[in-house]
Structures are given as C-alpha cells and as structure tokens.
Amino acid sequence: MQRMPRRDTQPEMALRRELHRRGLRYRTSIRPLDGLRCQADIVFASAKVACFVDSCHWHGCEQHLRLPKTNTQWWRDKIAWTKERDERNNAALRAAGWTVIRVWEHDNVTDAADLIERVVRHGA
Questions:
Q1: Which of 54, 81, 91, 114 is most buried as measured by Cβ atoms within 10 A of its Cβ?
Q2: How far is 14 from 110, CA to CA, in rounded Å?
C-alpha cells in the first residue's frame, strides 16, 4: 500500500489535462490554508476553490469499495476515519471562505471539469 501514489494519479492527471485544455490555470498538491494539514489536489487560489480527486478505495465510495477479506474491521475503521478527516477539512476550508469540490476517481472527467470551470469562472 505504501507504493500507491499519493499525487499525480491517473484520474487526477486526466482532470488536470482537461482543465488546462480549457485555459484554467491552477496549482497542484498544496495546502490551501496555513495550519491545515491537508493538501488539495487542484487549487485555484484567487478564486478560493480547492478540488480533491478522491479514490474509491481510500475514501470509501459506496459504489466501488471492496473491503479486503483480511483485517476487515481495521479497514472499516480506517475508511471511517478518512471520511471524518475529509469532513473536518471541508468544514475548515468553508469556514475560511473556500469552495470545496470533491470528485470521485470514477466520475466522468468532462462532467467534473464542467463543474470546476463553472465554479472557478462564475462562483459557487
């Protein structure tokens, strides 16, 4: 599991390519807020938009999550903790005036880019 990439995953790269093709410029893998221990995958600092591309496995997608057969309870706890952390980070970002966009790795890239572009160019 340590060999799993934390950044520049295929779904993230596909979304970044589509956003770049549309003329949107962004920063990658940065902390939107000082003091917040989370890095957003794609950040539009001037628009205060933080985008996360969530993995179905690590973030507990209800459609695609397949819990391992061994250590099942540990995995349940791990995924529950990840979901709680994501919610805490979302709340902290929103409280600081940021718009948070979370997309699943299985989401259609064009649809995700449409949503992000709309929010970045025209606001939430």
A1: 54
A2: 10
